[in-house]
Specification:
By secondary structure, the protein is α/β, with parallel strands linked by helices. The protein folds into 2 domains: about 250 residues, Thiolase/Chalcone synthase (Peroxisomal Thiolase, Chain A, domain 1); about 150 residues, 3-Layer(aba) Sandwich (Peroxisomal Thiolase, Chain A, domain 1). About 35% of the residues lie in helices and about 20% in strands. α3 packs across α6, α7 packs across α14 and α11 packs across α12. Its EC number is 2.3.1.179.
């Protein structure tokens, strides 16, 4: 016997909003959160813009000492997790019947605490090894988003981090889905988090020639456009509350959607470049559909990985066309046009975008894109403005360096 798995809450911090309402308002309006980099002077990197979190509501859940005990990527994850639990109406302090041993967390991060790695590396070089901070390791290692969330909410069950680059957030949600589906947990916090906008992060991606040098924030991240020139680095966190249907119904939860499928593959082709024919990504999408028992024609919306890079989008467009053919009902957009590419957090943030698209029956616009690349013309990119659309099922794609492909399939909740 397996369990059905539902979503009962989510929390978000992102370049386009730190609350669900703000995030959706900007998503619906196609309003970008990409702007001139303000976290540091990026002049020497040659990169001008990024998708930075703005006005992070630190005081909502944290005190001053938390900044010394958690890197920003962990703060983002804890914030999003606590907001998710609040939306789900899970009161951990006052519910004596809540089973913490069947409550877990799987949160992905591509890099972990990169700013503190940069800071402490500089300290080592200039002041010597004795001056490296005692908390350097627990501040920086990528699993500590999960660790800090579990510590904050007493999640004593299944607990780990997915570190699969830009697929990490989606892999984390898929893994948590399977833990509940197969009976190892009742409730899971799952998603992704990242805070890598610093000198070292921007310089590293820039020198890999992965980032755009475009200076206009509205034309910097333009997925599937013929003039795209690289991705825009983003940050933030998106965390979902997943529950078994039985557990959610027993406590009278407000169910938002159901997770019905998950696919995960590896291209095994190249460190950074995806398979040119998109076959690895296509297999991941097909696996998600197969687990859900869906036909390609059942899908109304695809939240594409769409990084605004040539290699990624040619392969992804081919993959989508391989699985879905010329079905005009399958609308596609990449919300990275608005948020930038949040690396390990992307899958969590974009799962929420996909969920909200289902809730509002609205496919967000692929903002900024004006003329499609000839390699992407066979798929139905949402151009100009978002579209009201019948979305009973949707998928969210995430693909990462190392050949990682991850796809989740969501279903509209209709009270069954």
């Amino acid at each position: 016997m397996t369990n059905r798995v539902v979503i009962t809450g989510y929390g978000i911090t992102s370049p386009i909003g730190n609350t669900p309402d703000e995030f959706w308002a900007n998503l619906e309006a196609g309003k970008t959160g990409i702007d001139v980099i303000k976290k540091f002077d990026a002049t020497e990197t040659g990169i001008t813009v990024a998708g930075e979190v703005k006005d992070f509501p630190y005081d909502k859940y944290f005190v001053h000492k938390d900044k010394k005990r958690m890197d920003t990527f962990s703060l983002y994850a804890v914030y999003a997790a606590l907001d998710a639990l609040a939306m789900a109406n899970i009161d951990l302090e006052n519910d004596a019947n809540f089973d913490h041993d069947r409550f877990g967390a799987i949160i992905g991060s591509g890099i972990g605490g990169l700013p503190v790695i940069q800071e402490q590396g500089a300290r080592l070089a200039t002041k010597g090894p004795k001056r490296v901070a005692p908390l350097f390791v627990p501040l920086s290692i990528a699993n500590m988003a999960t660790g800090n969330v579990a510590l904050r909410v007493n999640a004593n069950g299944v607990s780990r981090s997915e570190v699969t680059a830009c697929a990490a957030g989606t892999n984390a949600i898929g893994s948590a889905f399977r833990e509940i589906k197969h009976g190892y947990a009742d409730v899971m916090l799952a998603g992704g988090t990242e805070a890598a906008i610093c000198d070292l992060g921007v310089a590293g991606f820039a020198n890999l020639t992965a980032l755009t040098h475009e200076t206009d924030p509205k034309r910097a991240s333009i997925p599937f456009d013929k003039d795209r020139s690289g991705f825009v680095l983003g940050e933030g966190s998106g965390i979902l509350v997943l529950e078994s249907l039985e557990h959610a119904q027993a406590r009278g939860a407000n169910i938002l959607a159901e997770i019905v499928g998950y696919g995960s593959t590896n291209d095994a082709y190249h460190m950074t470049t995806p398979l040119p024919d998109g076959s690895g990504a296509a297999k991941a999408m097909q696996l998600a559909l197969d687990e859900a028992g869906l036909k390609p024609s059942d899908i109304g919306y695809i939240n594409a990985h769409g990084t605004s890079t040539q290699a990624n989008e040619k392969g992804e467009a081919l993959a989508i066309h391989t699985v879905f053919g010329d079905d005009e009902n399958v609308l596609v957009s990449s919300t990275k046009a608005l948020t930038g590419h949040a690396l390990g957090a992307a899958g969590g943030i974009e799962a929420i975008a996909t969920l909200q698209a289902i809730q509002h029956q609205y496919a967000p616009v692929n903002a900024g894109t004006s003329e499609l690349d000839e390699n992407t013309e066979k798929i139905n990119i949402v151009l100009g403005q978002g579209k009201a659309h019948n979305i009973n099922y949707a998928i969210s794609n995430s693909f990462g360096f190392g050949g990682h492909n991850a796809v989740i399939a969501l279903k509209k909740w209709e009270g069954e």
